């Protein structure tokens, strides 16, 4: 019975995924057929015009860049916090910290968005100015629009990093707590320090789990909508300068335009949602390949 239930659950999940993909494809075909631009490379988004012209180049770029910024910031901090809670902090400190992290994971995204718009954006001016002054030579941190409120991809990435931090931390912490005790004791018996135990026993065992946790966080960062919409001033401009206002994400563009869109415009937004769906599938598929390559090292197989 359990085997049949598990197999049935898997089949239902595949059927739901196929239904979502089929719905997005069917709704996107009409809009793509009437589009006068190249859907993948056009920077303009005017699906309600005559003729309709729209593409996902700018918003797909913004989606990927903001998510990558969030991952670069959040994953190292999350792993450090998870190691602190699981292996360094005494129990009287570890339990309240873990409880606080669990509470952060339960905060609604719109609350994060309001915090980002009212607190984070004004306080990002100093950081963006510093990055422009000392790292502007990299072109990525070159800020040409000085004196403007930093509603840009970098600010969106920082906000997304705060949002995914609890997810990555909680999963990583649980993985680190599953490290076989005998592995740690063997390292200690050989004279290893606490950091050497973590480096030689804990991190190798939990590497695949950390990757899985990171992919969960990346999935939320790619699909986050309202929080990004509150801190990002979208514009059809593709630029590598992440401190300049502008950019946009696929989810934010759908939320901002769906209510006022005409039939073709809504189908165009659905087409952009199909692109986001495919990006998410590719990211998770790549993560599964990475985890499979690391699978040969596992304390559970010892």
What's the arrangement of secondary structure elements?
Elements (H helix, E strand, L loop, with lengths): L1 H33 L10 E2 L6 E2 L2 H32 L2 H15 L3 H27 L17 H25 L3 H9 L4 H30 L2 H6 L18 H8 L5 H32 L8
Antiparallel strand pairs: 1-2
Helix pairs in contact: 1-10, 2-3, 2-5, 2-7, 3-5, 4-5, 5-7, 6-7, 7-10, 9-10
**Largest sheet entry:** 2 strands, antiparallel
- Based on helices, strands and strand pairing, what is the structural class? mainly alpha
What is the CATH-assigned architecture? Orthogonal Bundle
The total strand number stands at 2
Estimate nothing, just give the exact number of structural domains. Answer: 1
**Backbone CA Rg:** 22 Å
InterPro entries: MetI-like, MetI-like_sf, Phosphate_PstC, Phosphate_Transport_Permease
Protein name: Phosphate transport system permease protein
Main location: membrane
Transmembrane segments: 55-85, 97-115, 153-172, 268-291
Account of the 3D structure:
- The chain has helices at 2-34, 57-88, 91-105, 109-135, 153-177, 181-189, 194-223, 226-231, 250-257, 263-294, and strands at residues 45-46, 53-54.
- With 302 residues, it is mostly helical.
- It has a single domain, classed as MetI-like (MetI-like fold), CATH 1.10.3720.10.
- The chain has a two-stranded antiparallel ribbon.
- Helix 4 (109-135) crosses helix 5 (153-177) and helix 9 (250-257) packs antiparallel against helix 10.
- The longest helix is centred in the N-terminal third of the chain and has 33 residues, at 2-34.
- The chain is globular.
- Residues 297-302 have low confidence and may be disordered.
């Amino acid at each position: 019975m359990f085997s049949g239930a598990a197999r049935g659950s898997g089949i239902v999940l595949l059927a739901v995924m196929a239904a979502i993909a089929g719905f997005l494809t069917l709704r996107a075909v009409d809009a793509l057929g009437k589009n006068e631009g190249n859907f993948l490379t056009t920077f303009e988004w005017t699906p309600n015009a005559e003729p309709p012209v729209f593409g996902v180049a700018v918003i797909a770029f913004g989606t990927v860049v903001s998510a990558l910024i969030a991952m670069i910031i959040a994953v190292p901090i999350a792993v450090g916090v998870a190691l602190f809670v699981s292996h360094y902090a005494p129990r009287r400190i570890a339990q309240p910290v873990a409880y606080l992290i669990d509470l952060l994971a339960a905060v609604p995204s719109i609350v994060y968005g309001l915090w980002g718009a009212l607190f984070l954006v004004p306080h990002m001016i100093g950081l963006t100015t510093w990055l422009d002054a000392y790292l502007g030579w990299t072109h990525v941190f070159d800020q040409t629009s000085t004196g403007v409120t930093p509603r840009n991809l970098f600010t969106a990435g920082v906000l997304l990093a705060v949002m995914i931090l609890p997810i990555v931390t909680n999963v990583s912490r649980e993985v680190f707590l599953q490290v076989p005790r005998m592995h740690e004791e063997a390292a200690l018996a050989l004279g290893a320090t606490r950091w050497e135990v973590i480096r030689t026993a804990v991190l190798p065992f939990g590497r695949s789990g950390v990757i899985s946790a990171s992919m969960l966080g990346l999935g939320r960062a790619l699909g986050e909508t309202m929080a990004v919409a509150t801190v990002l001033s979208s514009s059809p401009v593709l630029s590598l300068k992440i401190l300049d206002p502008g950019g946009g994400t696929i989810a934010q563009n759908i939320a901002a335009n769906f209510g006022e869109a005409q039939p073709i415009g809504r189908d165009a937004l659905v087409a952009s949602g199909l692109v986001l769906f495919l990006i998410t599938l590719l990211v998770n598929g790549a993560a599964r390949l990475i985890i499979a390559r690391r699978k040969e090292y596992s304390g559970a197989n010892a």
